[in-house]
Predict the structure.
Amino acid sequence: MLRRLRPLVRPDTVLRWHRDLLARRHAAGPDPSAPGRPRTVHSIRALVLRLARENPSWGYRRIHGELLVFGIKVAASTVWEDPARGRDRPGAGARPRHLGRPPAFAG
């Protein structure tokens, strides 16, 4: 049987097919149209915003801890990277001038 197929397909061709198959398998991820991490579910994002708005003294660590108590497993970065969260808080993003310096040298 192999002797009859021999003139049809050369070994170089079979090796090229194999290389192409491996390249296609590893080049394309699960869905090439949507690279990166999946987006956070809207209800979880809304809950993070609600907790931040109702508890302005809480930081991202406390909010993340409360989400874990509720049984919602998200990364802490999901809480601190939420772009809408910083807009509601006064002074969000403002850094104290004395941060990193002793109080005597602040100013």
Q: What stands out?
A: The chain is about 50% helix and 0% strand. The mean pLDDT is 75. The longest helix spans residues 11-27.
